[in-house]
Amino acid sequence: MATTSIAGRRPHGEGAADTSSNLSLDAWRSQALAFEAEIGRAVVGQPHVLRLLTIALFARGHVLLEGDVGVGKTTILRAVTRALGGPFERVEGTVDLMPTDMLYAAYIDDAGKPRVDPGPALRHGEDLAVFFFNEINRARPQVHSLLLRLMAERTVSAFGKDWSFPHLVVFADRNRVEKEETFELPAAARDRFIMEIGVETPHDAEVRRELVFDPRFHDVDRLIGDLREGVIDHRGLNEVGRAIQSSVTTSLTLERYVLGLWDALRAPASVGVSIEGVDMDRLILGGGSPRGVGALVRSARVRAWLEGRDMVLPEDVRAVFAPVMAHRIFLDPIYEPRRERIVRALCGQVFDKVPAP
Amino acid sequence: MTRAFAPRSRPSLARYLAAAVVLLASAAPAAAQILDRSMSAPHPFGLLLGDVFTLRTRVDVAAPFKLDASALPKPGPVTYWLDLRSITIRESTTPGGATRYEIAAEYQTFYAPLEAIEQTVPSLKLVVTDGKGGRAEADGASWSFITSPLRPIAATAGAASAYGLRPDALPIRKSLRDAEIAAGAAGGATLLALALLAWSRAWPPFHRRPSRPFASAARAVARQAKAGDEGWRNAALSLHRAFDAAAGRRLLGEDLSAFLAGRPSFLRLEPRIRQFFEASRQAFFGAAPAVSRMPADELLALSRSLAAAERTS
Fold first, then answer.
1. Distance CA A211, CA A49 (A)
2. In Å, how far is B287's CA from the nearest CA of chain A?
3. I need a surface site. Which of A213, B58, B170, B269 has the fewest CB within 10 A?
4. Which of B284, B291, B293 is the best substitution to test chain A (most A C-beta atoms within 10 A)?
5. Domain spans, chain A
6. DSSP 8-state symbol, A176
7. CATH code reported for the domain at B3-147
8. Does A248-353 carry CATH code 1.10.8.80?
9. How many other CB atoms are there within 10 angstroms of residue B87's CB atom?
10. Which of A41, A37, A39 is nearest to A210 (CA)?
């Protein structure tokens, strides 16, 4: 009899659990869209960037924003931080910044004694939600390697113990104009960013007029301050992220498609990609790491969830492909100066050539 | 050999006719409206199988009466041995104010006599009307002639003489060049039209035409769609490849609006195309394949509509 009752109960219990998790995922989706809309009040003309940031957040990945000076990279990250809520810390990258400067704050106290307090990274304890690294390419490789561990493992060692930051997201930005006194990010560090999002000046004339003439956009502090704080609960993101990854399915066809894209990226000539003025056989040194492709699938799942689907489509993969994969493609050095144009053409053509479904 | 009994026959007519003019008896009880009738005929003997002869009847009709041509016999067989080959009517006015009709009836005899025998050509029926209900009838003259059998002349010396029966003349071999040229031109035009049609519809050997991807997809769909689940998927793949070829890149569901915007001839099919992409998503990427997808018939119909739309674009 006991067996019967268990067998009778189990489907019911599972069904109920499914329903509740679906419900909460639906509720989370509307929160995510509200979050996006809230940032959109401060950041105009960049819906594409906001959508990618939202995806990265729910895919539990770190983001590097790249763009020209004054296009609003910092404003975007501040707005995201504000709408996300939770403790955040901000560090400006400089040439003389050392890793210890991020972990320890050393000073002479009122009594004239040297004191060492927790530095920016530790000041808020292990509940830190956002670590915001401005001008990351101005920092030295030593700092990059600290950041590497912080991003990869969400831990650091300081004061003789390990600190763990389970809810941490690292946002970084860098401008691509300056090359003086900068340190290129090592490939390993770049690979830790789930996305590298390019921010460009909005193309729409009306948006540009608004940005330049509307006084609302001149005072960034007030602009950010007007945003509602904590639209989503940053402590729930890890769990929701896991739920999304397990509830959104990828079919066999899609898996083959993604692997096909990956192959095409590693050997573009094999699918007939050709870029003007480029020897396709020697262009690619490394075409995306397994971690990178894993990040691609994670992001695609989140995008499908945001679109209200429970299956990943090629469209989802395409929408996140360039931000996730472009910075993980390593080109032959002679093509590096033309990197941006070549990688954009490569990503576009890969999608034009690999059949889906 | 000429017997001229026809005081009214004109000199030209007399010259034309070989032998005889038969004057109809004016005293015959003809209607008052038919003033005069006469017939002239060739000599009434020496006619052989296949000979053609003409009987000319002249009728004077008082005004306002007119000869009713519809009462005359039509060209064609008259009896089993006699054909009327043609009949012509010439109309003129007599000095007396009456209307004169000259009826020329051309006959051919096919009577094959075993010995000389007399045969009679039946008379014509002459009907005159005044157009107001008045009507009168009279018979023309009948004509008898002697027809003889065709015989070789046995008394002459040698079969090769000019009097011996000669073999039948060979039929003239008429040139068919014009007909051959016309048939050849028509055949060529047909082939050209067929080739154009095949080109337009992307039939073999034009089935790989780059600008007709949907035509070959429609054929592939027709081949595959009904072969179960796997067949449906292959058919859908064929159609996807056609969309890719038409777009010049891989076309995903989200790109449909942009794709259709540039192709007005496909706009009409938009709901069905979207339905196909939705069904394809479910089939290829959904968790529960084979649910809520497009039936094979609809898929086939869509592929054919697309091929038709492609021709007009």
1. 17
2. 7
3. B170
4. B284
5. 42-232, 248-353
6. S
7. 2.60.40
8. yes
9. 19
10. A41
CA of B309 vs chain A CAs: smallest distance (Å): 24
The topology (CATH level 3) of A42-232 is Rossmann fold (3.40.50)
Q: Which residue has the higher pLDDT, B293 or A207?
A: A207
* Closest CA in chain B for residue A311: B286
Position B120 scores a pLDDT of 93
Determine the residue of chain A that is closest to B281 in CA distance.
A313
* Chain-centroid distance, C-alpha A32: 15
Q: HEC states along A123-139?
A: CCHHHCCEEEEECHHHC
Q: Please answer yes or no on whether B252 and A313 come within 8 Å at the CB atom.
A: yes
According to DSSP, residue B110 is labeled -
Compute the nearest-CA separation of B201 from chain A (Å). Answer: 26
* Per-block mean pLDDT, blocks of 10 residues, chain B (313 long): 38 41 41 79 90 92 86 91 93 88 93 91 88 84 89 62 74 91 96 90 74 83 81 86 85 85 84 86 73 75 86 74
The answer to whether residue A256 scores a pLDDT higher than 60 is yes
Taking 90 as the threshold, does the pLDDT of residue A69 lie above it? no
Q: Which of A48, A255, A313, A350 to mutate to test the interface with B (most CBs of B within 10 A)?
A: A313
Q: How many residues does chain A have?
A: 357
What is the reported pLDDT for B105?
93
Q: Which chain A residues touch B285 with a CB distance below 8 Å?
A: 250-251, 253-254, 311-314, 357
Domain parsing of chain B, residue ranges: 3-147, 200-312
pLDDT at B26: 39
Q: pLDDT for B244-255, tens place per residue? A: 888 888 888 888
Q: Which residue of B has its CA nearest to A357?
A: B284
